[in-house]
């Protein structure tokens, strides 16, 4: 939490101050963006159209409207405040991210992420204050995601258009089905969450779990062999796909033709699945075969009745029997060798 890192924020502000990038106003300690020549470059800002931030009262003493506060001192009634070299107050909006990221990741790290709305202000100011403290950016790459919407509408507490993991659990979904759904979309394209889409992702995830169990069982029966060229091809293709602007959706799509590739052994397919899952995070290595439960005689009788109806092409009647079986707490999986009775 940012409030657990006030000392680090004060220390970083002192460093920026020492390097000559600040000035004082009645509002507090302000970052002087004129000292950073590249301020507008990251977001391609037209500074003539920029306005002051509105988290605090507009400060007429600021040299530029887009100069931003590092430490706020003019709100004595604010619920959170701490002592500092500049008076009692609290940190500006942007300083916490730079202070916390450099504490745990160092002054130079690979990737900084965030929503696309942070490009023109928050991340621009993070870059500026990092320049003031260290003379350079802290992140090598900045990745900005588009938004998650629900059934085409923006998520918002005010409208009640929100979902939690508990909501998914209450409807019987595996939370990792949501993860699978997210993996199907590129981060810069955003995602429109729909229940239909989640159901499709749940089905795909279940299929992936079943295939993992099957391959693990098959590979345990075979001896280890040298890696084939096909195995190396999929390894390289997976890495190349991820290297294309974190193409996780394309990498996930690669999984299915790999599983159908007849030139790969079961052992190779299983190993590739587990390797891929180090990125996907679907916990394929934890998947276990479902416990074998004997269906009651009444359920078996209904399944046989359904099979007779299907052979007689009485589809509506067969579907009613299926619903009756589900009402008893079982489900029917149709397979080439005949129906299988499962617990949901």
TrEMBL record:
**GO MF annotations, alphabetized:** ATP binding; cysteine-tRNA ligase activity; metal ion binding
Q: Which residues form the tRNA synthetases class I catalytic domain?
A: 1-200
GO annotation, biological process:
cysteinyl-tRNA aminoacylation
The Swiss-Prot or TrEMBL record lists the needed cofactor(s) as:
Zn(2+)
One Pfam family name is: tRNA-synt_1e
A Gene Ontology cellular component where this protein is annotated is: cytosol
Q: Which InterPro entries does the record cross-reference, listed alphabetically?
A: Cys-tRNA/MSH_ligase (IPR024909), Rossmann-like_a/b/a_fold (IPR014729), tRNA-synt_1_cat_dom (IPR032678), tRNAsynth_Ia_anticodon-bd (IPR009080)
State the superkingdom.
Bacteria
UniProt keyword annotations, A-Z: ATP-binding, Ligase, Metal-binding, Nucleotide-binding, Zinc
The record's annotation in PANTHER family points to:
CYSTEINE--TRNA LIGASE, CYTOPLASMIC, CYSTEINYL-TRNA SYNTHETASE
How this chain assembles, per its entry, is: Monomer.
Q: What is this protein called?
A: tRNA synthetases class I catalytic domain-containing protein
| Organism in which the protein naturally occurs | Candidatus Wildermuthbacteria bacterium GWA2_46_15
